[in-house]
Design goal:
single chain, 157 residues, Multidrug-efflux Transporter Regulator, Chain: A, Domain 2, 2 domains, two-stranded antiparallel sheet, 13% strand, SinI_DNA-bd, DNA-bd_dom_put_sf, HTH_17
């Protein structure tokens, strides 16, 4: 299995956005009913290439859901990256994800706020740990904003 591409995701152009919206709508109709993707069988899809070649393929329901989700994001003009569950990121990739500086990420790791492991002299952060950290940060931010809103309401601002 080839290593995942480490290129930054590219924003879709207007033509790709329109194609993604339409493909997302069409594929969403093929999703199995309910949330239990393992219970239902996804239909086989027929792919047609530009030279009118046909090929039938079966796509697992979970992969079809992922494809619809990716196309939905692309249809909204967003870049998409797919990572395996056990992916490890460099400190620069973590910084890019969090939209902070790399030295700040290193300080989070050194303060034991963000779990990481060393590979030689380099630090690696498990993507799952990054997601957990990000969600905790967002929860703290929401709590702080709620507290500010409560204080504003008490002061009549």
């Amino acid at each position: 299995m080839p290593a995942p591409s480490r290129r930054p995701p590219r924003l879709p152009n207007d033509r790709e956005i329109a194609q993604a919206r339409e493909a997302s709508r069409q594929l969403a109709r093929l999703l199995p009913p309910g949330d239990d993707d393992t219970a239902a069988e996804a239909p086989a899809l027929r792919l047609v290439t530009a030279d009118n070649q046909h090929e039938m393929i079966a796509i697992p329901p979970g992969a079809l859901r992922l494809l619809v989700d990716m196309l939905t994001q692309l249809g909204q003009g967003r870049a998409v990256t797919v990572l395996p569950q056990n992916a490890e990121l460099t400190t620069q990739e973590v910084a890019d994800y969090l939209n902070v500086s790399r030295p700040y990420v290193v300080s989070l790791i050194e303060q034991n706020k963000l779990p990481a492991r060393k590979v030689g002299t380099r630090r690696r952060v498990a993507f799952e740990d990054l997601l957990r950290f990000d969600e905790q940060q967002r929860a703290r931010q929401r709590a702080a904003l709620d507290e500010l809103a409560r204080i504003d309401a008490e002061l009549g601002l």
